[in-house]
Amino acid sequence: MKRYSVFAIAREAARYHSGWERAWRSPDPKPAYDVVIVGAGGHGLATAYYLVKNHGIRNVAVLEKGWLGGGNTGRNTTIIRSNYLQDESAAIFEKARSLYETLSQDLNYNIMFSPRGVLMLAQTEHELRAWKRTAHANRLANISSEMVSPRRVKEIVPIINIDGPRYPILGGLWQARGGTARHDAVAWGYARAASAMGVDIIQQCEVTGVDRDGGKVAGVQTSRGNIACSKLCIVVAGNSGVLADMAGFRLPVESVALQALVSEPIKPCMNCVVMANTVHGYMSQSDKGEMVIGGGADGFNNYTQRGSFQHIEETVRALIETFPMISRLKMLRQWGGIVDMTGDRSPIISKTPVDGVFINCGWGTGGFKAIPGSGWATAEMLADGAPRALASSFSLDRFAEGRMIDESVAAAVAH
Ligand SMILES: Cc1cc2nc3c(=O)[nH]c(=O)nc-3n(C[C@H](O)[C@H](O)[C@H](O)COP(=O)(O)OP(=O)(O)OC[C@H]3O[C@@H](n4cnc5c(N)ncnc54)[C@H](O)[C@@H]3O)c2cc1C
User: pTM score, two decimals?
Assistant: First the structure.
């Protein structure tokens, strides 16, 4: 793989950009691999990348039924932060956030990481107490985040109305090194780097069945033929229940559509991410100038990757008291993705009842920010046969043993 650099751009400019290579290979599937990963979203691709980079396991395939990054990874609102309440969550999200800081250099691909700061508003007394508790927990976990006053909120976000009649701003939880990254670029960067190290990324290859030999995995049936493997990792977000069913076990996960929308582009007016969890809305401004807006998940289980008018109405109505200026914006586009929700709003990175089958899912509304840390931890699990410290608390056993990692406050609508 040729490196991207300023010299490469100059060289290609001189020869009319005729020498760029394809970013990743498109191989036909081989009959067998050591590890098959189902799902070429951010988590599957990062897992493949760290399998090779950290553990030297190269005979790996990533199978994708559509196009890589076409699931939730290419549909999210790209908020990155690590100020979660519980130690286990804070550890994996902070690992991910810190990997994001240097991911462009690591992958030799500009993922446009923008640590512009994430502000989580406190708009009720209850929320104020919850964020204070989180700020204390973060300090103990050595994660940088702080409580700020309403006046400081107004300084950080001048367009905000802090004196709303229903939900005035009582304070905020501020993580200055949180921010955003370009979602497609994260998938493309991992795909390019993994492919260059020998991973076969096979798009338009739907997994339709899982073959078992007794209690152990033997391979997968796909729309492009059968593929044998000794380890299978299911990383398919909202489709996790479907794949688990193929492998012969059940998951404590519900699939729900989560929607987002963007406005017409306007001049720069907000240089951080703001989340208003009480009213179910959050907003940032893209590099193109669009206001990127998201809200709550659909209130019923479904597999529809689409937007709905009701959602625009609800989310914009929720945000208008705090951001009166959006009442004059035209909304341009909306879309949805299928998110995989667990009862405690924490992920699952785990072995499963089928020997050789592993699962990474349950990231729900907030897994984009976790991609590097999750890939790192999942690769460790695949290499060792069991999760190491970063992921050991996120096993499936916790639902049987009642060891929940409750992040319902930190994760609810917010990302
Ligand atoms: C509207 C919206 C906003 C969000 N905002 C944020 C945010 O601001 N911050 C944040 O941290 N998170 C956010 N999220 C959540 C985040 O997008 C997800 O948690 C994360 O992208 C999940 O990544 P993944 O790799 O697990 O899944 P995906 O990216 O969905 O990848 C799974 C892949 O598996 C493939 N697949 C499924 N079934 C099969 C099969 N049978 N065979 C082969 N392939 C299959 C799919 O096609 C898909 O490409 C948001 C999500 C949505 C929908």
Answer: 0.97
CATH of domain 114-179+255-341: 3.30.9.10
The hierarchical CATH code for the domain 33-79+85-94+101-106+183-252+344-411 is 3.50.50.60
- Closest to 71 measured CA to CA, from 194, 188, 237, 201: 237
Ligand 1 center from residue 366 Cα (angstroms)? 10
DSSP structure string for 144-169 = --EEE-HHHHHHH-TT--TT-SSS--
Domain residue limits, the chain = 33-79+85-94+101-106+183-252+344-411, 114-179+255-341
CA 1 / ligand 1 centre spacing (Å) = 27
Nearest C-alpha neighbor of 114 from the set 143, 80, 144: 80
pLDDT tens, position by position, 5-40: 999 999 999 999 999 999 999 999 999 999 999 999
Query: In angstroms, what is the span from residue 339 Cα to ligand 1's centroid?
Result: 7
Who lines ligand 1 at CB under 6 A?
Answer: 38-44, 63-66, 70-73, 75-79, 206-207, 235-237, 239, 243, 258-260, 294, 337, 339, 363, 365-369, 415
Nearest CA to ligand 1 atom 50: 76
pLDDT value at residue 295: 87
Quick: pLDDT tens for 325-354. Answer: 999 999 999 999 999 999 999 999 999 999
Q: How far, in Å, from the CA of 14 to the mean position of ligand 1?
A: 39
Q: What is the pLDDT of residues 169-228, one digit of tens each?
A: 999 999 999 999 999 999 999 999 999 999 999 999 999 999 999 999 999 999 999 999
For residues 356 and 257, what is the distance between their CA atoms, to the nearest angstrom?
30
The answer to whether the CB of 396 falls within 8 A of the CB of 388 is no
Q: What is the DSSP string of 294-310?
A: EEEEEEEE-------HH
Structure tokens at 257: 């559509």
Q: What is the mean pLDDT of the chain?
A: 96
